[in-house]
Design brief:
Pfam families: GerE
Order of helices and strands: HHHHHHHHHHHHHHHHHHHHHHHHHHHHH
Protein name: HTH luxR-type domain-containing protein
Number of strands: 0
GO molecular function: DNA binding
Largest sheet: none
Radius of gyration: 28 Å
Keywords: DNA-binding, Transcription, Transcription regulation
Strand content: under 5%
Distance between the termini: 75 Å
CATH architecture of one domain: Orthogonal Bundle
InterPro entries: Sig_transdc_resp-reg_C-effctor, TPR-like_helical_dom_sf, Tscrpt_reg_LuxR_C, WH-like_DNA-bd_sf
Length: about 475
């Protein structure tokens, strides 16, 4: 039995949890102490996404535990409660585990840190997870070190601290790569990093993030969904990546299907298939899997509400919703309570899509979270001239072509010249009009410009009118800003 256990451990740490589970089941059919075998089987089943079977295995192991295995299984049970959202119960159980082992202590601290963060105390939660990293270092356990980092990056990503998450996660992946352990231990960290690279608009880095074959299918599939969303936002075909994700997922996974529906909705909106996007979001929200986070539900509702708004504004022979007001009310009613700063902004965005919040304020909130695509989207919805120009710059910098087209449509509707359109317009100015524009930029009055250029005030007034008309500017200050942006 000991040899079977060691073979199973080797397979598990080689990134082959399914093979490890098969080895463990064979060993469990024979005589001997079953507790350690069951404990490792629980870990394999949980990693593979079979949570119900994992919990049954854990309970069976608990009934057989003696010695240090009692504490290990108690912490594992706390981890299970945490995964079910029962944070207070999980924290109490983790705290009750008395141990002198740094390895078990690191595990317990990892659980506690996540619970603290999701109960609203993010600073304390991240500090506890840093303590878990320290204890794991002392123990020399790579498994517990990667667990601590995985939980820390998960908490940071969920809290909208994407830059910190990307930095810590990248550093951990580099260390694991040097030790030759990246494929085995990096799945959770790699996924958490991918969500932050997506949020930060660092899409080229996300594209280059490898998905080793050794990564379990449920994590590999979700990394591919992140890459698919980035592709869709750039106007590329995301279908191949979504289909790859569906192929690598192992077994029926309601959580993955809901996450996949969101990515398909984003891709549909990018292609102008607004009704499809609304239906995907609406159907998913009506039958939510329990494991879907509040943030994921908020994004689903926001995407559905945004697509509904786009659909109502679309012209041509577009099939409209049968009852748009009922659809909007239904999606708004499904919005969960936010669990962190990013969730708060997603909730505000959902209400703004229904005309019940300020897009300008929401854009500033996205700026604070350093999420450039979302900030540009909010400024597009805002529609003010300077907001549209700001959004246009961001969209072109990100390569977000569908958003750039949306900005262009809105700018044309509002007769707002965009920065990438300004240079040809400046080129239409006469030399004298350029002189007048330069002085406008210095804040000179028509009388002061007339005196400097030796012209009549009436002639200067005509030149100013021509400049504003050619630039499409609403006033002198706006014309001056357009000129400054190009010099």
């Amino acid at each position: 039995m000991r040899e079977a256990l060691e073979r199973a451990k080797a397979l598990r740490w080689a990134g082959r949890p399914e093979d490890a589970a098969l080895e463990l089941r064979k060993a469990l059919a024979g005589p001997g102490d079953r507790c350690e075998l069951l404990y490792l089987l629980w870990d394999c089943q949980f990693v593979l996404g079979d949570r119900a079977a994992a919990h049954e295995t854990l309970l069976e192991a608990k009934g057989l535990a003696t010695g240090s295995m009692v504490q290990r299984i108690e912490v594992a049970e706390a981890s299970w409660l945490m995964s079910q959202g029962e944070y207070r119960a999980a924290m109490e159980l983790a705290d009750s585990v008395g141990t002198q082992s740094d390895e078990i202590r690191a595990y317990a601290l990892s659980v506690r840190g996540v619970c603290e963060a999701f109960l609203g105390d993010l600073p304390r939660g991240t500090a506890t997870l840093e303590d878990a990293r320290t204890a794991a270092h002392r123990s020399g356990s790579i498994r517990e070190l990667t667990r601590a980092v995985g939980n820390l990056t998960f908490v940071l990503a969920t809290a909208g601290q994407h830059e910190r998450n990307a930095r810590i996660g990248r550093e951990a992946l580099t260390r694991l790569g040097i030790q030759g352990l990246a494929p085995t231990f990096s799945a959770v960290i790699r996924y958490n990093v991918s969500t932050s690279l997506l949020a930060l608009g660092r899409w080229d880095e996300l594209d280059s993030l490898e998905v080793p074959d050794a990564i379990p299918g449920n994590k590999a599939a979700r990394i591919l969904l992140c890459q698919a969303e980035a592709a869709a936002l750039r106007g590329r075909d995301a279908d191949d990546l979504i289909e790859r994700a569906e192929k690598v997922i192992e077994g029926q996974d309601a959580l993955f299907l809901a996450q996949c529906a969101y990515t398909r909705a984003v891709a549909a909106r990018a292609k102008g298939q607004y009704r499809t996007a609304v239906e995907l979001c609406r159907e998913t929200v009506l039958d939510l899997p329990e494991a879907l986070t509040g943030g994921e539900v908020l994004r689903l509702c926001a995407a559905g509400l945004g697509a509904a708004r786009d659909l109502q504004a679309a012209g041509g022979r577009v099939t409209k919703l049968d009852d748009p007001e009922a659809t909007v009310a239904e999606l708004l009613a499904r919005l969960p309570v936010p669990q962190g700063p990013e969730d708060e902004v997603w909730r505000r965005l959902a209400f703004a899509e229904a005309g019940r919040d300020s897009w300008a304020e929401i854009a500033l909130e996205w700026d604070r979270l350093k999420m450039p695509y979302q900030a540009a989207y909010a400024r597009t919805r805002c529609g003010e001239p300077e907001a549209l120009r700001h959004a246009d710059r961001a969209a072109h910098r990100l390569g977000a072509l569908p958003l750039a087209k949306m900005i262009d449509r809105e700018a044309r509707r509002r007769r707002v010249p965009l920065l990438h359109q300004d240079k040809p317009q400046l080129g239409t100015l006469t030399p004298r009009e350029r002189d007048v524009l330069e002085l406008l930029g210095w804040g000179r009055t028509n009388k002061e410009i007339a005196a400097e250029l030796v012209l009549s005030v009436r002639t200067v007034g005509l030149h100013v009118s021509h400049v504003l008309a050619k630039l499409g500017a609403g006033n002198r200050s706006e014309a001056a800003r357009i000129a400054r942006d190009q010099t």
